[in-house]
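Lab manual, section 2.4: Encoding a predicted structure.

Procedure: take the sequence of the chain (282 residues), apply the prediction step described in section 2.3, and record the output as C-alpha cells. A sample record is shown.
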Amino acid sequence: MRYLLHPGRFLARLGAFILVRAAQCALSRGEYPRAERLFGLALRLAERVLGPTDVVVGAVLNDLGIVHKYQGRFDEAERVYRRAHAIFLAARGEVSLELAALYHNRGGLEHARGRDGRGEPFARRGLEIREQALGPAHPTVAADAAALAAILDGQGKRDEAEELFRRALTVFERIYGGEHYEVAVTLNNLGALCQAKGETEEAERLYRRALAIKEKRLGGSHPEVATTLNNLAVLCRSQARHAEAQRLYHRAMVIFHGALGPSHPSTQACGENYEALTGRAQ
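Recorded output:
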C-alpha cells in the first residue's frame, strides 16, 4: 500500500483531513475566523508535504474560498478558486467531481457579488457533471440545482428557478427529513422567489418555516438566521407592517454585526434596509 512506502505523505493527508473537518464544523457554526485559521493550517501542511499542485491542496483552497465568500472577501475567494481550478484541471481533466464542486462554488461567488450572468455557466456546468455522475436524486445534485435556481432567480428567470428549487426541496426532504439545514436554505430562497412574484402569503409561510429550522439547527445568532430575518422584514415592510419589520431588521442587524462585522455586505445591506424603514416611519 502506498502509505506504507510514504508514511510522511499519509500522515500529511490524515492531518489535513482532521484540520479540514474541524474547519468545516467551525464554518457550519458561522465561526469564520476560526474556520479560516484551520483551513490555513491544513493548506500549509498539504503544500509543504504533498506539494503545491496536489489535489488535496486544491480541495483545501476550494474550502478556503467558501470562507472568504462568507466573509465578503470576494477577490480573495476568486484567487483561491482560480488556483484550485488549475490544480483540478491538471490532475483530473475537464470532467471530475472535484471540478464540479468548484464550479458550484464559483457560481455561488458570482451570485454573492450580484453578477448572476457570470455565475450561471459555472452553476450549469457543475450541475451537469454531478448529475451525470451521481444521478438526479442525489442530495449533492439537488444542492447544485438549488444553487443554479438562486442564480436564475437573480436574473428574473423565475419559472426555471422555481422548478429547480422545488425539485431540490423534494430531494432534500425525502433524504434528510423536513428540518435539515439544506431544507431551510431552499425554503428561504423559494420564499424570496415567491415574494418577487407577488405571492406574499406563500412567501411568508416559507420564510417562517425556514426561520424555525435555522434557529433550531444553527442557534439564534447564526448569520443564516439573520438572512431570513432580513427577508421576512422586507416582506413585512412591503405590507406596511412597520413595527414588526423594525423588530426583525434590528435582530438581523445585531446578528450580522456580531458575526460578520460592520463592513460585510450583508451587514451593510440590512443596515440600509433598517435605516430606510426607520426614516420612513419617522
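Check your result against the sample. The radius of gyration is 20 Å.
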